[in-house]
């Protein structure tokens, strides 16, 4: 679910690195919003990242 339907941006994975340089897994979630947008001429609810919303790639309904 947490994936942009426009650009396919999703979660990114990496490591938390402590002061003593021990590593543990962590995850960065992208800022995904549920938006009512025009898809093929009809309004539909889709999940879109905020960078696609801001750039105007999505026409809101």
How would you describe this structure in keywords?
61 residues, mainly beta, two-stranded antiparallel ribbon, 1 helix, 4 strands, 10% helix
Description:
With 61 residues, this protein is mainly beta. It has one domain (12-55). The chain has one helix spanning 50-55, and strands at 12-17, 23-28, 32-39, 42-49. Strands 1-2 form a two-stranded antiparallel ribbon. Strands 3-4 form a two-stranded antiparallel sheet. The longest helix is centred in the C-terminal third of the chain and has 6 residues, at 50-55.
Query: How big is the Rg?
Result: 16 Å
Write down the overall geometry.
rod-shaped
Strand content: over 45%
Largest sheet: 2 strands, antiparallel
Low-confidence stretches: none
How many angstroms separate the termini? 21 Å
Number of domains: 1
Percent of residues in helices: under 10%
List how many beta strands DSSP finds: 4
Structural class comes to: mainly beta
Give me the side-by-side strand order of the main sheet. Answer: 1-2
Determine the mean pLDDT.
95
- H/I helix tally: 1
Order of H and E elements: EEEEH
Topology at a glance:
Blueprint: E1 12-17, E2 23-28, E3 32-39, E4 42-49, H1 50-55
Summarize this entry quickly.
The protein has one helix at residues 50-55, and strands at 12-17, 23-28, 32-39, 42-49. The chain is mainly beta and 61 residues long.
